[in-house]
């Protein structure tokens, strides 16, 4: 590892797993290149720093110090994501400014701030005021970013807000997307959704560069399109988690060992791994259809049910009496897994996913075919690309989540369509592997990123 003493990078992740994970992986990449890293993190969802001993963590308090936490579990559990984003910005804008000023005023030279693109304006204004360069990390894919960047046009042309009568219409300006694939989030504050998206796009335009957790062979056209729109230096250096073997999310706990032990007992490529990420919530009725669909498929399955994921319940209590005994060792239901470990396990034959960008990329990197049930935001765009462009998965629409449909989809991906999908998945995995070789695009882009960042204080 080269030494770059006195070169510190400050990172400001959004406090959700799908955003924190890639940021911490990026921190690992910078650390490996000799930078020191400070993570400024909201007190909301503050992570366990002992899991990431290479980095300095600073908790940013909410701006109502001394008062009750405005973002306590009981407050946030009923908020939609857009309202939660708004609150986060309101609660942390001022204290972020103070924390960043303190860090930049310290002894060590600070190269730059790397902030999650979704923080948008608040980081733009503060970084400018404090005089530190700002690079943006976009944790989603380039294809969905193109769709977000096209929001003004989509509104002008009447595609947004989405009308039920137009769901299957192609969006000719964003092929191969259909109207139903446009990245929206259900919210009681629709104007705020437009504002959050606009803030993200404008914040990227005014930045000193955008880092992407994607690779050129995967999203070449979309990256070109975004680059034309944003006109700032571009660094697609993904997949982040494949840069090094000792990356920060590889640590395992006892439950992970139990899961691996269960997977070790299954036949190669026999298991359906089902997980819908860290945020998506489902209704009890859907939960039961999924449970029966998995059971009736007669395939071994590993299913992540986060506590609170099923609306109105704590965990598994709505399963019918005897269900768990009935599935026996054939299925395993857990609260959380080390997904990177699971997808890399030879027993896993398919990933039933909500198509969050990290999950999509992680599956691609292990050559695992996907069953796509997108829920909101960029997940619909990712699903369209998985199914129609990269052709490494099948769609199972949320509106069709009935046990028979589920059983058919699972069996189709594991059996009838299995060989074909697996073959293409392995080809895509090869191109993911190649981009990180010495001559690969992501390795070269990382060199450019390091030089770019080092040029800031010269
Ligand atoms: N994840 C995990 N264990 C789980 C579920 C999710 O480690 O049981 C990780 C997964 O590997 C990914 C992240 O959480 O890195 C989820 O991000 P994604 O973009 O897929 O979805 P989101 O949670 O943002 O909807």
Automatic annotation (TrEMBL):
It holds the Pfam family UDPGT. Gene3D superfamilies: Glycogen Phosphorylase B. Keywords: Glycosyltransferase, Transferase. GO terms for molecular function: quercetin 3-O-glucosyltransferase activity; quercetin 7-O-glucosyltransferase activity. PANTHER family: GLUCOSYL/GLUCURONOSYL TRANSFERASES, UDP-GLYCOSYLTRANSFERASE 76F1-RELATED. Belongs to the UDP-glycosyltransferase family. This is UDP-glucoronosyl/UDP-glucosyl transferase family protein. It comes from Arabidopsis lyrata subsp. lyrata.
